[in-house]
């Protein structure tokens, strides 16, 4: 079964996805109902969410679990099942291997449409040529420093622009397809 791995993420205009301490305060104060509706539409076409430990911990700290009903896989070599809150243990899986083996496993068990989240996880999937589509919600703020969306990559990754939308709050959403 063919897989499709997609990124859907917000970034400051200078390319950061969070402050250096992982804080998203600059983003959370700017979201609108349109943002939530667009994310819900995106998630309706996703079978599984793949994220790293840092993103998992950030999402947990936000309170309400936003991925109810979705298979969630956390990439980590250090987390154990006991580190997952008890109410989420049936919904969250841990994976310590390389992204390619996870993608193959998820496709084999009927979860071929993936949402890949978190800077390190996105970069590891990009390095292995596993990302098919990237949607970036550019937020009209300059942070000056923080956690970069892309950072160092071993080679150029060519993208094809698919669409751009603007929103009254100032967001600009651009969708790209990875050219193979």
Structure overview:
The structure is a single chain. By secondary structure, the protein is an alpha/beta fold. It has a single domain, classed as Dihydrofolate Reductase, subunit A, CATH 3.40.430. It has five helices and ten strands. Helix 3 links the parallel strand 3 (48-52) and strand 4. The two termini are 19 Å apart.
Observed structural traits:
180 residues, two-stranded antiparallel sheet, globular, 31% strand, alpha/beta, eight-stranded mixed beta sheet, 5 helices, Dihydrofolate Reductase, subunit A
Question: How many helix segments?
Answer: 5
Radius of gyration: 16 Å
**Low-confidence parts:** none
Beta-strand residue fraction = 25-35%
Q: Could you report the average pLDDT, rounded to the nearest whole number?
A: 90
CATH superfamily: Dihydrofolate Reductase, subunit A
What's the main sheet like? 8 strands, mixed
CATH topology: Dihydrofolate Reductase, subunit A
What is the 3D shape?
Answer: globular
User: Roughly how many Å apart are the termini?
Assistant: 19 Å
The main sheet orders its strands as 5-4-3-6-1-7-10-9
Helix vs. strand class: alpha/beta
Helix content range of the residues, please?
Answer: 10-25%
Shape-level CATH architecture:
3-Layer(aba) Sandwich
Number of domains: 1
Q: Can you identify the CATH class?
A: Alpha Beta
Order of helices and strands: EEHHEHEEHEHEEEE
> How many β-strands, per DSSP?
10
